Amino acid sequence: MKKVILSLLMMLALAVGTEAQEARQRVFQQIHDKAYIIANDSKEAMSVRKLAIFRVDAVNYLSTKTLTALTDTTKHLSQEEITQLNDQLDSMAYFMYDYENLFNKEYTRARTEKQKQKIIKIFRDVSINNPLYNDPDRQLVLAYYNREDFLTQFSLDTNWVKAVSEVKERLKEN
Distance from the CA of 24 to the CA of which of 59, 111, 137, 149 falls in 20 to 30 A? Predict the structure, then answer.
């Protein structure tokens, strides 16, 4: 009887752990999927679609970097390290979404062109000054950074958790 109860408890713990893992994975996937739908919706304004395109690309960049780390055959990752990488992906996707929303709020709130350019500069600078991977592929990392036709002129290689914290501090100063 003890063995049956112990087996059931272990299966329950495994099921709960699997559900928790799936819930964590849904964070980056939900952000990606919602942005992908908006980016491809011809009924949406082009400015809204461009914001969504950035989100899709940013989440794809984070996902690719995570997948690369997970499939690196030169390293044997423990279950804890795998969980940490997945958690990091979800956190970075969430904070990227938060960063972009904060940018949109501050940019919309700016009344003059000078104020808008100041907001763009603050967010651009913070994104480039907080790399996550130190990716040497500058062409990829800076795909949006110098694009005048996109408001989201941010580096893809950004530690979004640090960037959100720093940009909030910089906004308080100004």
Answer: 137
